Automatic annotation (TrEMBL):
Record-annotated HTH lysR-type domain positions: 14-71
A GO MF label: sequence-specific DNA binding
Xref: PROSITE patterns: HTH_LYSR
Pfam family, one: LysR_substrate
Protein name: DNA-binding transcriptional LysR family regulator
Entry keyword annotation includes ATP-binding: no
UniProt organism field: Sulfurirhabdus autotrophica
This protein's UniProt keywords: DNA-binding, Transcription, Transcription regulation
Gene3D superfamilies cross-referenced by the UniProt entry: 3.40.190.290, Winged helix-like DNA-binding domain superfamily/Winged helix DNA-binding domain
Length: 305
């Protein structure tokens, strides 16, 4: 009868939380960047990496001038760690998707303008009718990864391309070019596109979304065309309210400020599609399904023209 040799070291089963810390450092390239991904402290993260290396008996990273670099052993660990990450996410999604309890948290993500000026009214009605549901809102123009549970539901203006998602197009939001009446007085009372370069336009900084819109309309402008640039759309809107120039915004939002005047014909500015998206597993959750449907209905009423 064979017996196990007690002198042979037993394989360690690494803690998933330690592997999660490892993957965050891999993705960020540094401890500092990984702390932002995990919302933790650098000492805690350093301790987790050291604990993982100790449990496995290998060095995973080496320090270089620009941060950390994977060792050969660390490189070999990435793929199986990714497999564990995928499995853990699948378990989480399946468990959440099967629950029929309404009480709990739903995490949303939407653009800054939608988060600030559109969602509060919709969420107020939702909370009044379903007070057991708690809402977390990520106001961001970045496309959050629903497959990795960075959000449960996303409101976006492009059709999602990831597989495994449920997406509903609720319509198209009318977008217009607006300026404060005081600014219009300074430029002669109206805006003439034939002299587009004579005006102060408010655009985005790193995003090329508005640039693409101009080019699609036959005006191949460059980034420097915009006198004021900021990727935060709320700041851009506030700048226009202060009379800084011409800004693009949803017509339904701009209507709240009568001093903001439409300066271009609506047909010159393309509408913006509005999509509500969730992971398909989450549609099996009564809580997620209820919030998803409430958002779709509310957005049709408040945003879509």
């Amino acid at each position: 009868m064979n017996t196990l040799d007690s002198s042979v070291p037993k394989a360690q089963q690494p803690d998933w939380n330690l592997l999660r810390a490892f993957l965050a450092v891999v993705d960020a390239g540094s401890l500092t960047g990984a702390t932002r991904l995990l919302a933790t402290s650098q000492p805690t993260l350093s301790r987790q990496i050291a604990e993982l290396e100790s449990s496995l008996g290998i060095a995973l990273f080496e320090r270089v001038a620009r941060g950390l670099r994977l060792t050969a052993a660390g490189e070999a660990l990435v793929w199986p760690a990714r497999q564990m990450q995928t499995a853990a996410q699948a378990v989480s999604l399946t468990a959440l998707g099967q629950t029929q309890q309404l009480g709990g948290t739903v995490r949303l993500t939407a653009s800054e303008m939608t988060s600030a000026y559109v969602l509060p009214e919709i969420l107020k009605l939702l909370r009044q009718t379903h007070p057991a549901i708690q809402i977390e809102l990520v106001a961001s123009n970045r496309v959050e990864n629903l497959l990795e549970r960075q959000a449960d539901i996303a409101i976006r203006h492009t059709r999602p391309t990831q597989g495994g998602l449920v997406a509903k197009r609720v319509g198209d939001a009318k977008i217009g070019a607006f300026a404060h009446v005081d600014y219009l007085k300074r430029v002669g009372g109206e805006v003439d596109l034939a002299r587009a370069g004579d005006y102060d336009w408010i655009g985005l900084d790193s995003s090329n979304m508005i640039l693409r819109g101009f080019r699609a309309a036959g005006m191949p402008v460059e980034r420097e065309f915009f006198a004021f640039r900021c990727d935060n759309q709320i700041i851009g809107w506030q700048a226009a309210l202060a009379g800084l120039g011409i800004v693009f915004a949803p017509v339904s939002v701009a209507a709240r400020w009568p001093e903001m005047q439409l300066v271009l014909p609506e047909e010159l500015v393309p509408n913006m599609p509005v999509w509500v998206t969730a992971h398909r597993e989450l549609r099996n959750s009564a809580r997620i399904r209820l919030v998803f449907d409430a958002l779709a209905e509310g957005l049709q009423t408040m945003v879509v023209g």
